[in-house]
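Hey, resending since the last one bounced:
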Amino acid sequence: MGEKRGYEFYCLAVFFALFVLFLYGPIITIGILSFQGPQGGLTFPMNGWSTHWFEDLFRQQAVGDFWGALSRSLTLGLIVMIVTVIVSVMAGLAFRKKFRGAGLVFYLAVTSLIIPSILVSLGVGLMFNIAGLDVHWATSGLGAQLTWTLPFGLLIMFAVFNRFDKSYEEAARDLGATPWQTIRHVVLPIIAPALIGVALFGFTLSYDEFARTLLTAGTYNTLPLEIFGMTTNVTTPVLYALGTLTTLFSFLVIAIALGVVALMRRQQASAGTDAGKGLV
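The structure tokens again:
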């Protein structure tokens, strides 16, 4: 029996290792190829080792607008993140009470998750054209990306509030707190880690989004669109260097979010411990 369990463990370990390799293999390959020498190409074998292509990113490029596209993606991602957090929290609070048409509103909100992204992009772009509005990454692009991020934020808030202990709110009201004070000083601090998760979802989904931005960005590309355009005319490892830097940035954002959540939980645990000592 012990040998059988050991065999199963090793099989699962090998399967998991292959899964991780399949998941991160392309990223690791791009990272390695980005350190090729000045005469390096887009494939193996490597032609020397250097940081030449990372340095080339900071020079004037004959093709591509790396930093302009990056600034637009960061700006759009931050706007989407803020709107997603605010609307998701408000919607989560609203759905805590039953109201007529709640089911219809919910299904309409999450329907955009199952509609092909390119169709959403096409629909939003056509709507702006019909209305005589300019198709721009900060208007139509923002609207198209919110159809992707808001449903995720709403689902997360549903899960959070379904497990929320209402006795905390009742205690605050018994002590004379107004509804706004209850939300500000009781509800929001408790669900703060979930809000960090919604913010992370909103930012990363916007930062990486391609299909929903394709027909709604107008004349200025976001970073995913710029990288896609570069694949047709850039034949140097500078493309891999850009991919490596953007991947590291994505991991950095995730690490910061996890660090903030861990810090908040530690502070909450410390506050709870201090309160318990005070009672004793």
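The two ends are 51 Å apart (CA to CA).

Sorry for the duplicate.
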